[in-house]
Design brief:
about 230 residues, Carbamate kinase, two-stranded antiparallel ribbon, 8 helices, 10 strands, globular
């Protein structure tokens, strides 16, 4: 069976699935209802679920016990956390979601379920990279990155009062000035630097926005102006 309509890909940060303050049950209900409504309108999705604070908590604990753990070991801990988070979200959607959690984004899955769930792939990159590679696999030209930030800033707004928001930026400038070129396990950045390089090569458009603001997510999915940051080749 060949799917007739492209799926929309969303990289969903673990910080949305389970914030540091604990599960936001009301948001999870709203997120489920939001996607159910979009599905009734004919849309289909790939949700790539991140590890967020869950992954970082495990990684920090492991590093405290074993300071000599390699970055690859820490990455595998994070990957398993993404699988846990993805399985949790998959269960929330029940029969709407494909039963398998995808961990190899290079393999195209043909499913009659409107939602395909994916998690981490391999060390040296985050689930943002999984989403980017899946975009290439499925022939999708853009994806949404749902985070706990509303947009990209030129520097950390939590540390610098003069941080300026960025509404649109090129991949080259984003990599040169914002995220760099090297991945570190557990690092929190607007978009994974390794994924950024692949996205630039694939000429993808990535929209970064606050995933808890479902009104803005809806606008972005519909191709309308939204509150967030767009990264493209320019």
């Amino acid at each position: 069976m060949r799917e007739s309509h492209p799926r929309k890909i969303m990289s969903v940060g673990g910080s949305i699935v389970i914030p540091k303050t604990g599960f936001d049950i009301e948001f999870l209900r709203q997120f489920r209802e939001f996607l159910e409504e979009r599905i009734r309108e004919g849309e289909r999705f790939i949700l790539v679920i991140g590890g967020g604070g869950t992954a970082r908590s495990y990684q920090q604990a492991a590093r405290s016990v074993r300071p000599d753990l390699s970055e690859e070991d820490l990455d595998w801990i994070g990957i398993h956390a993404t699988v846990l988070n993805a399985r949790f979200v998959q269960r929330l959607f029940g029969s709407l979601a494909h039963s398998e959690i995808i961990t190899d984004p290079q393999v195209r899955i043909e499913s009659d379920r409107p939602i395909i769930m994916a998690a981490g792939w391999k060390p040296g990159r985050s689930t943002d990279n999984t989403a980017v590679v899946m975009a290439g696999t499925y022939g999708v030209r853009e994806l949404l990155n749902l985070s706990n930030i509303s947009c990209v800033y030129d520097k950390d707004p939590n540390r610098y009062d003069d941080a300026k928001r960025i509404d649109r930026i090129s991949w080259q400038r984003f990599r040169d000035e914002i995220v760099g070129f090297k991945w570190q396990p557990g690092r929190s950045v607007p978009f994974d630097p390794i994924a950024s390089g692949v996205a630039a090569e694939l000429n993808l458009r990535v929209s970064i926005l606050d995933g808890t603001n479902l009104s803005e997510v809806g606008k972005a999915l519909s191709g309308e102006p939204f509150d967030g940051t767009v990264i493209v080749n320019e």
